[in-house]
């Protein structure tokens, strides 16, 4: 992972493998569950396109004998990281599937490598679009590869069940979020990018569309039209997605109750937070907290001392 990665794309992949672990259950050999290891060049916090940090381990902290799949997820603004490129070249021969998402595809090319997919007999019965209508481009290819891995390991029935298990999320997902200005947003005008950045950093407070339009030197009507055209979502959808991503982060990284998280992220009350999670993530906030902590602990990416204690006295 590298700064500017798409949290949405990462979340889709994680859900595929977590769901496969749950559905394969007793039929999977002992020790054959999928383990997900978020790694980066130097380790520590890597920030998503919306500014939400994900904790990673340094690539050299893992000595992989064999890598089932390597998904290289990065933003478009990439520096030349020889350390990371060297690691990619080293681990590549021991990796069955290699897929780049966003700037990750360019990282693979810079390392002098090519992407490779898991081969299966016959097409998937359920395509990724059946449970994620927002998947396109390399995001869609990554989902195909993830499901093909599951099909290769557990058969077509489990792979189809994974897609079907995630399908309730599809019709309720909000539109694909606008990306960081260094990703797809780089094609947007400077005024729209600046307005998006201002809305992102101030998402916890009440966001004024009229103020954002004035800052962009546009009429409110023209601002709304340009924002949707250049970033693919409305300003309201943009702010909601940022708030939800920040809430996801706080649920995992702190012990704050849901009502405080709702207030601190601009989502109002715990009841509204719960309603939004059911609509967009098909689970409750407490369910998300428990499942994500369990997943991160299982992969070695989260230890109990890394979860912050209650933050008293701050509303």
From TrEMBL:
InterPro entries in the cross-refs: AraC_XylS_family_regulators (IPR050204), Class_I_gatase-like (IPR029062), Homeodomain-like_sf (IPR009057), HTH_AraC (IPR018060)
The organism's taxonomic lineage, starting at the top: Bacteria, Pseudomonadati, Pseudomonadota, Betaproteobacteria, Burkholderiales
Domain HTH araC/xylS-type: start-end pairs: 193-291
Domain of life (superkingdom): Bacteria
Coiled coil regions, renumbered to chain: none
A Pfam cross-reference name: HTH_18
Name the UniProt record assigns to this protein: AraC family transcriptional regulator
Keyword vocabulary terms for this entry: DNA-binding, Transcription, Transcription regulation
